[in-house]
Design goal:
Layout: H1 2-32, H2 34-50, H3 56-78, H4 82-89
Helix pairs in contact: 1-2, 1-3
């Protein structure tokens, strides 16, 4: 059990690093265009899958951010609006809502 927890923690840290890289790619795509960054996103998605399993208690916040960054990137690629995505999926939640993690500090 301890080994599994250590592996999950390692995967969690790796996925946090990958999220930061994805955030930078999404920002970079605003300036340089999606086409140039598409291979980087695909590589990052593969690394995400290979990073391993994260503890359930930490999974939700990671996957929400991962999905939001991916959606933001692909929306630029396809030049569609959030409203169009929501209409297509039947989801009325803005995929770009900021996830705030309370740390106890203001």
């Amino acid at each position: 059990i301890k080994q599994k927890e250590e592996e999950q923690e390692k995967a969690y840290e790796r996925k946090k690093e990958l999220l930061e890289q994805l955030r930078k790619i999404v920002e970079q795509a605003e300036e340089t265009g999606v086409e140039k960054n598409f291979p980087l996103v695909r590589q990052l998605q593969q690394a995400w899958r290979e990073a391993g399993e994260v503890a359930q208690s930490k999974y939700a916040s990671l996957i929400k951010m991962y999905q939001a960054y991916n959606e933001q990137f692909y929306i630029r690629e396809n030049d569609v609006t959030v409203e169009e995505i929501c209409e297509y999926t039947g989801d009325h939640v803005n995929p770009f809502e900021t996830i705030v993690i309370y740390t106890g500090n203001y």
